[in-house]
Design brief:
The protein is mostly helical. The protein has one domain (about 25-190). The chain is about 75% helix and about 0% strand. It contains eight helices and no strands. It has helices at about 1-20, 25-30, 35-50, 55-85, 90-120, 125-130, 145-170, 185-190.
Length: about 190
């Protein structure tokens, strides 16, 4: 297990050293809205898909919004690691950061479970007939199920909780706000150099 931890810490260290040179300190707040809106959009189109089944448009849309939501979440998490390097942490804000990160990881787990349960589910022959029907890479897979809907709702709940804690850090404790718990790049270079 310590080998995996060493590899992970090495990858994280490389990402931080490269990312700090490429991106501004506010990159995380600039990107966090994408996974939120994409996951909400996936849930919204899933609900619409239950009522309007024409051409499986909403079924396809909800699947691809879920995929994009996961990818956007990965990018938001990666940039969050960078943005946290510019912040002065107190015991209270560190505890909030841990909670924020735990909720974000749970969001990602639920999104992956929702995707996996959709990919595992097949459309019935009657559902997949017709030239306009859809399946993942023409395998008959990708159907929305009750289980995938449960995981999607759980992911939306978790991304909401993640955002709420993130908002609390910013608006109540000033995390990442210039002059209130924020390191400028010059201070960061002086601190690490």
């Amino acid at each position: 297990m310590s080998i995996l931890a060493s590899i992970w810490n090495g990858i994280l260290g490389i990402w931080i050293s490269i990312g700090l040179r490429l991106f501004p300190p506010v990159i995380h707040p600039m990107l966090v809205h994408f996974p939120i809106v994409l996951l909400y959009g996936s849930l919204f189109t899933t609900v619409l898909g239950f009522f309007w089944k024409y051409d499986r448009f909403f079924d396809r849309a909800s699947f691809w919004l879920l995929v994009l939501g996961f990818l956007a979440g990965v990018v938001a998490a990666a940039t969050g690691v960078l943005s946290e390097q510019f912040t002065k942490w107190t015991p209270t804000t560190s505890a909030l950061l841990s909670k924020h990160q735990a909720y974000a990881v749970l969001t990602g787990v639920f999104v992956l479970l929702a995707l996996a349960s959709r990919v595992a589910a097949r459309y019935s022959r009657s559902q997949s007939k017709g030239s306009l029907s859809w399946s993942l890479a023409d395998t008959g897979r990708g159907r929305q199920t009750g289980l995938s809907m449960f995981f999607l709702v759980a992911a939306v709940v978790m991304v909401t909780m993640t955002a709420s804690v993130g908002g609390t850090m910013v608006y109540q404790y000033g995390v990442g706000v210039h002059g209130a718990g924020y390191h400028t790049p010059a201070l960061l270079a002086k601190h690490h150099g």
